[in-house]
Amino acid sequence: MRVVLLVLKFGLLAILYFFILRVFYFILTDLRRVSARGGPRPAGQQAVCGAELVVTESNDPSVRPGEIIKLGAETRLGRGRHNHIKLTDAFVSHDHMQIIFKQGKFFLEDLHSINGTYINGVRVKEPVPLSHGDAIRIAGVTFKFVRWEYEVE
Question: From first to last of its 153 residues, what are the pLDDT tens digits of the chain?
Fold first, then answer.
């Protein structure tokens, strides 16, 4: 009987330590992910003031609702490591889409992805200018395009 209680005691202790280590692991990975997005831009991406993507819905663990992603002169999204915004959803292509700033506007271009990119529920087939408040959906993730600079039309 004593041996059983001793085994249960150490088993419970092991489970408790495992739980604490998992919590620290998730905290550290989350901090790394946030610092990578909020820190310096990857090489080749110039900062552009006044626009960001806000995650409104997400089934992808790599981005969470409420997360804000600043946009650069060229911002690429996909599963590939070279993308500025990396998603892990299996329905996201390696090179899924890009947002480019040119002529004072942001344009979204689908990079021939298999499952497509949608703006306000309509599939994108060619580069489309983005407007403040546009909903961009890729697989199980929806972003809201926010442009808080004055736009001249």
Answer: 888 888 999 999 999 999 999 988 888 877 776 555 554 444 445 555 678 899 999 998 888 999 988 888 899 999 988 888 899 888 999 999 999 998 888 999 999 999 999 999 999 999 999 999 999 999 999 999 998 765 444
- 57 Cβ contact partners less than 8 Å away, ≥ 6 residues apart: 65, 140, 141, 142
Return the ∠ at Cα 52 (arms to 123 and 85), rounded to 5°.
70
Structure-block tokens of residue 20: 């604490």
Distance CA 87, CA 83 (A): 9
Q: With contact defined as beta carbons under 8 Å apart, do 64 and 55 qualify? A: yes
Strands (E), 60-112: 68-72, 74-78, 85-86, 97-102, 105-110
Quick one: 66 exposed, middle or buried, by C-beta within 10 A (0-12, 13-18, 19+)? exposed
Is residue 40 classed as helix, strand or coil in its secondary structure? coil
